[in-house]
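Whiteboard transcription, Tuesday session. T.W. wrote the C-alpha cells on the left side:
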C-alpha cells in the first residue's frame, strides 16, 4: 500500500472513488456553458464554464471576488452568512458574468447587499445586474489602500536616506546612516498596527522613528484617523455626521501635503457612496477572503491543479 505512487492514488480517486466520471456522463457536472459571441459576425468564439450555480446558496448578504486558479481568473460569489459558494465562473468580464448569473434564476432577487472590491468590472456588474442590492465597497480593500500610502511615504524617506549616502559607503556598515535605514525597515509592520497593539519596545522604536521622520508620523496619524472613522461603532451616527467627519479627514490630508494620501482621497471620493454604505449594514468581505484562503490551501495541499475541471468539481463539493 505504501509503495503506491501519489499519481496512482489520484487516478483511483478521480476515476473510481469519486462520482466525477458518473456525474459528467449523466450531465450533473460541467453542463452549464455560456457562449462568447463575436458582436460583428455572430460567430461563437469560445465557451465559458459556469462551474457552480447553486440557487440555494444565495442569501441576503453576498460577496463577489476574483480568484486565480490554475492561471485562470475566476469570479466567485459567496454567501457572507454561510460562507458557501453560490456562483463560480472562469471569467471576470461583465457580459459573461451577466450570462452566467442567469443560471441562478430568480434567486438573485433575494440579495439585499453585496460586498466587492473597487474593480470596475464588478462594480458595473453589481449596478447593472443587481440594481436592487446595496453595493458595499469592502473595508479590507479600502484600508489596504490607506496603509499602502503610509508604506509609500516610508519608502520615499528610505530612498532619500540612501541617496544621501556616498556610493562607496552604501555597502558598508556606517553607524549613523544605516541605523536610520534599520529604523525605517523595522517600522514597516508596526505602521499597519494601532498604537495600543505595540509593546513597550515597539513603542520606543516608533517614538524614535517619528522623532526622526515627522512626515511618517503625519502619514501614520492620517491612516489611524481614517481607521477610527471607518470603525463599526460609528454606524450609530447619522449619515450626515459620517460624511462631515470624512470631509474633515479630506481637509487634514490637504493640509498635510502628502501626495500619496491625496491619491487616496481621489479614490475614496470616486467610490464615496459605496464606501459609506458600509455603515448601513457593517458588512465586509472577510468571509469571502477566508474562503479564498481555504481554496488556496486546498489547492496547495493537493499539489496544485493537475486537472482544472476535476479540481473545480472537488471545490464545488467542499465549498458549496
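and on the right, the sequence the group agreed on:
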Amino acid at each position: 500500500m505504501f509503495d503506491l505512487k501519489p499519481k496512482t492514488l489520484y487516478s483511483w480517486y478521480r476515476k473510481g472513488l469519486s462520482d466525477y466520471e458518473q456525474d459528467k456522463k449523466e450531465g450533473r457536472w460541467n453542463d452549464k456553458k455560456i457562449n462568447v459571441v463575436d458582436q460583428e459576425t455572430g460567430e461563437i468564439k469560445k465557451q465559458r464554464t459556469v462551474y457552480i450555480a447553486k440557487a440555494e446558496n444565495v442569501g441576503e448578504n453576498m460577496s463577489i471576488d476574483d480568484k486565480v486558479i490554475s492561471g485562470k481568473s475566476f469570479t466567485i460569489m459567496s454567501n457572507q452568512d454561510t460562507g458557501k459558494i453560490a456562483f463560480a465562473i472562469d471569467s471576470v468580464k461583465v457580459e459573461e458574468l451577466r450570462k452566467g448569473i442567469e443560471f441562478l434564476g430568480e434567486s438573485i432577487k433575494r440579495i439585499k447587499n453585496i460586498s466587492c472590491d473597487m474593480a470596475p468590472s464588478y462594480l458595473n456588474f453589481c449596478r447593472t445586474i443587481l440594481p436592487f442590492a446595496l453595493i458595499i465597497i469592502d473595508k479590507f480593500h479600502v484600508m489596504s489602500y490607506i496603509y499602502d500610502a503610509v508604506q509609500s511615504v516610508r519608502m520615499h524617506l528610505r530612498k532619500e536616506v540612501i541617496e544621501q549616502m556616498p556610493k562607496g559607503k552604501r555597502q558598508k556598515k556606517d553607524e549613523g546612516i544605516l541605523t536610520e535605514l534599520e529604523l525605517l525597515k523595522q517600522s514597516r509592520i508596526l505602521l499597519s498596527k494601532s498604537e495600543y497593539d505595540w509593546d513597550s519596545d515597539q513603542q520606543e522604536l516608533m517614538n524614535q522613528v517619528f522623532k526622526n521622520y515627522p512626515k511618517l508620523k503625519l502619514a501614520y496619524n492620517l491612516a489611524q484617523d481614517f481607521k477610527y472613522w471607518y470603525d463599526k461603532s460609528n454606524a450609530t451616527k447619522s449619515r450626515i455626521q459620517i460624511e462631515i467627519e470624512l470631509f474633515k479627514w479630506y481637509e487634514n490630508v490637504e493640509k498635510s501635503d502628502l501626495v500619496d494620501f491625496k491619491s487616496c482621497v481621489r479614490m475614496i471620493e470616486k467610490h464615496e457612496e459605496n464606501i459609506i454604505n458600509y455603515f448601513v449594514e457593517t458588512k465586509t468581505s472577510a468571509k469571502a477572503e477566508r474562503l479564498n484562503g481555504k481554496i488556496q490551501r486546498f489547492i496547495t495541499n493537493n499539489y496544485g491543479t493537475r486537472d482544472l475541471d476535476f479540481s473545480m468539481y472537488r471545490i464545488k463539493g467542499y465549498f458549496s
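Someone added at the bottom: The CA atoms of residues 152 and 247 lie 23 Å apart.
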